[in-house]
């Protein structure tokens, strides 16, 4: 179908595509009918694998292209954008990613469907024409993933009868192969744990809000991290921390978690003297376990040598990581902890605190 004279040069389709399903494919093909090219923005890029974000952005780009014809693929550009848990910053990152794929001054249109509150991002790009399209069938990523994780223990035939109707054939073939890999087993078991965790609170009159603490300790241009020893996020790197105990203050909980998880050989007075301040992180989607608000205590230890640490409690390992190595750990960090580090270093990154790469 030839394009009209006033058609936009570039149409933009934004999503996580976890996985890329038939509803996404229908929207993408409609976008291809409206513009010379389509830029597919792959959200949650560089996140560690989780039941909500099991596939890397490279894998999702592969699935998008595999679902299209050769002619369509030639007109589709996939670009990754990380989660910032900071909407203005995320909007600017999306704009920059799209502009990197379009000629200067090109007309750009945003393609999407207003499904629910999760679609409000479509209103954040006032300089782009908005092409609001009707829902493309009864497709949704969350139930599609739930079928794939198969916690109901359906037979493989039953499971694939459902999935084959929801995703393009190329995606179904890829998902069958991915199901044989260790990643699938790990994500399925993690989702089983998280689902059980949520079920324990299902009878509450209101969804619970959890309060946690984390310690961000810097010493000699190193950050103290722990490797999680159990789900959720088993094997991922994180700040030492945990839930607030009923009879503890936030500060007392932070000291307790540091002691239990790292064995840090410092007194409470030493820690208080090192305290720079606190930051609160409360993005509604920051944790799969439910609404979780954390208070991060930022400390600088002006010591001549790194204190010895020893993993304990539910930490599999504890170590001091050079600040220069943090960026390379982004895709191996739990939930939003990389962005916690980024924001804290922007806030406190001066004087004795080195800049985060």
Automatic annotation (TrEMBL):
Presence of the UniProt keyword Translocase in the record: no
Q: Where is the Nudix hydrolase domain?
A: 208-344
| InterPro entries xref list | Cyt_trans-like, NUDIX_hydrolase-like_dom_sf, NUDIX_hydrolase_dom, Rossmann-like_a/b/a_fold
Against PROSITE patterns, the record matches this protein to: NUDIX
Domain of life here?
A: Bacteria
A single GO molecular-function term is: nucleotidyltransferase activity
Give yes or no: UniProt keyword Nucleotidyltransferase: yes
Cross-referenced SUPFAM superfamilies, in alphabetical order?
A: Nucleotidylyl transferase, Nudix
UniProtKB keywords: Nucleotidyltransferase, Transferase
* NCBIfam families hit by this protein: cyt_tran_rel (TIGR00125)
The name on file for this protein is: Bifunctional nicotinamide-nucleotide adenylyltransferase/Nudix hydroxylase
User: What is the species listed in this Swiss-Prot or TrEMBL entry?
Assistant: Comamonas avium
